[in-house]
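Researcher: Re-running this chain for the archive, since the previous output was lost when a drive failed. Same request as before.
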Amino acid sequence: MNIQIITYMLIPFIGTSLGSLAVFFIKDKVGEKFQDLLLCFSSGIMIAASIFSLLIPSIEMSDGKFSFLPATIGFVLGNIFLLFLKKLVAYIDKKKENNSNNKLKNKSMLFFSVTLHNIPEGMIVGVMFAAVISGNIAVTLISAIALAIGIAIQNIPEGLVISIPLKLGGMSKKKAFLYGVLSGVVEPVAAILTIFVTGLVTPILPYMLSFAAGTMIYVIFDELIPEKKSSINTIFVSLGFLVMMLLDIILG
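Model: Regenerated structure tokens:
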């Protein structure tokens, strides 16, 4: 594996970092209504990413009569895992009698969820480049690079999804940006590791994709979408969904 291949695998990470830069253009004080609209738009993006980037590929990777099982099992386990994590955090906070910003901690769960989602994406990139390195004629270097660029463009709004809610939760702009960048670091790491263990990872990749989708959907409906319902909020969820759906279809 040469430096050029490693450089190509950094492309999705660059997309996430570019999206996180948006946090520096957000005012220090943002109105509650504007916060709600941003969170709703982010929710729509994440719902679409869960469906088009995770669940559908999970189903398509599975063969046979019961091809729905990996997607179902992984999705349910993702929900259960986030529920367990939330209970664990609440228990630890109660033990420590911690009175810190609950809103910020909720958004930190969002960071954790999107980071999980980035791991299987990195693995997909790794599988593609592993095929190129092995000389698989079904996968060309150009197609592998195109996939990496497509994921990078999809990652731009995902970096925004991480950094802006953290900023709105009270975190500094620099720290919120750093969290966004860190959520994307796992992609090239996962890609490089996958190249060395492609034969082991490929069979469980459908479960990992749907597991990540389950964690994202849990966070969206439990923490991200505002409790106060309104037509404009619903429209912004739909707009976010539409943006991510189009990115997946056009670049897929």
